[in-house]
Every structure is written in C-alpha cells, then in structure tokens.
Amino acid sequence: MKPRHSILLVEDEEESAEMLANFLEMNDYEVLVAHEGNRALELIEQHAGEIHLAILDIMVPNVNGKEICRHIRKHPVLHDIPVIFLTAKDEEQDEIEGLELGADDYIPKPASLNLVKAHVESLLRRQSPQKANWLQYGDTYLDTDAKELYVENEKIDLTSTEYTLIELFYKNPKRVYTRQEILEHITEEDRFVFDRTVDVHVKNLRLKMEDAGEIIKTYRGIGYGLNREIVKV
C-alpha cells in the first residue's frame, strides 16, 4: 500500500472546510485543518515533516493565506511543497500576487470537490517521489539526506563530526551514549584520541545551536543524549 499524502487545509468557513476535508479523507488523504492563520502556523511546526501539500484560503483571520504561503516558502522542510490558493478573491491582481509568492495553483470559489481533488492529484504527481528524510524535535529539523541541521528556519553550519553527533542523537532519541560509544561513531581521525574530545564537539555543537542546544543533555556519570524532557520520547 502506498503511503498516504498529508494535506494542510486552511479555511475559515468551517462547513466548507469540513466538507472538503471529509471528501479528501474519503479519497485516502490525511488532512490537517486550520480555521485561522495562527493555528495553521502551529500545525506547520508540529507536522512539518508530514505535510505534502497546502490548500490555503487568502482571507483567514490573524495570519492570512499569503503570509502562510510566504512562511511555507521560507521553511526548511516545506519550502518546495505544492501550494494551492482556494479563495473567493478572484481579482487578477490577487492571482498574480499569489503566484509571485510561490503558489503553484489558484482555484476560485466556489469550486467542485472533484475539481479540487484533480488539482491536488496533478500537483502531487509532479512532486519528487522521494521526500527528504527529516527528523524534527521542537523547532529543530535534521535533513538526513542533505546532512543539514536547521534551528527554526536557519541552517546551522556544522563540521562533519558535529553532524555525525547530532544525527546519532536524533536517530536514537531514547539512548544515552558514553563518550567511548560516541567516539566509535565519529570520524576515523578522532577514534583514538582522548574521550574528552567528545566534550569539545558537544560544546561546539551547543554553541552553534544557541538556545536550542539544550536539547542535548549531559547525563552525569554516563555521557550524552537528547533531553527527554524536551523531546518527550
């Protein structure tokens, strides 16, 4: 069975949102629904690694659809997902502005459920079949394909050893590693040096991550691992 695609639907008209969400779910999509902009941003941060496409109404309260689209296009995980504007605003200038913001499609309301579904399927077919492998804890994201770490929307420049360390922790969030175990996972040149080398790498990694660095915890008398109070594993 092929994996289900997940869609972010932002629509302030609750009846319309429920109808479209139910229709998409009947067609084997998972749907995350927000009726206003702040909730949409929360869902983006909570489920960034799962969302494959976004359907946005422009005129939603608090943070409008254009701002949400702009946020998606700057997001380290979601920047390349398809975005559809589904809105009653059918002025040509609104369509142009939406496309300039990075939207892939623009469907004026009212639109039939089957029409929306057809546009969704068309855009998802164009997507790369392999979505990046992301690990997310809080506001941090690890792209294990590109070997890159992001804190919020900012890429953190890491050395090869620092990346190897953070990947080890993120892929095994329940484990606490001794310094010797960590040394066995970092570069060859470091394997036979003193285990305090690990302390230096961890310190540098935390400094680069700034406040988010507290996600790496020192377990006194044992070693290092992810802070379970933060990642809730």
Automatic annotation (TrEMBL):
InterPro entries xrefs: CheY-like_superfamily, OmpR/PhoB-type_DNA-bd, Sig_transdc_resp-reg_receiver, WalR-like, WH-like_DNA-bd_sf
Tagged with keyword Thylakoid: no
Phosphoprotein recorded as keyword: yes
Modified residues (4-aspartylphosphate): D57
Domain annotation Response regulatory: ranges: 6-124
SUPFAM superfamilies: CheY-like
GO biological process terms on file: regulation of DNA-templated transcription
Domain of life: Bacteria
Gene3D superfamilies: 3.40.50.2300, Winged helix-like DNA-binding domain superfamily/Winged helix DNA-binding domain
GO cellular component, one term: cytosol
DNA-binding region(s) from the entry: 132-228
Gene Ontology MF terms: phosphorelay response regulator activity; transcription cis-regulatory region binding
Pfam families xrefs: Response_reg (PF00072), Trans_reg_C (PF00486)
Keyword annotations from UniProtKB, A to Z: DNA-binding, Phosphoprotein, Two-component regulatory system
All residue ranges annotated as the OmpR/PhoB-type domain in the record: 132-228
Database matches in SMART domains: REC (SM00448), Trans_reg_C (SM00862)
Protein name: Two-component system, OmpR family, phosphate regulon response regulator PhoB
Organism: Fodinibius roseus
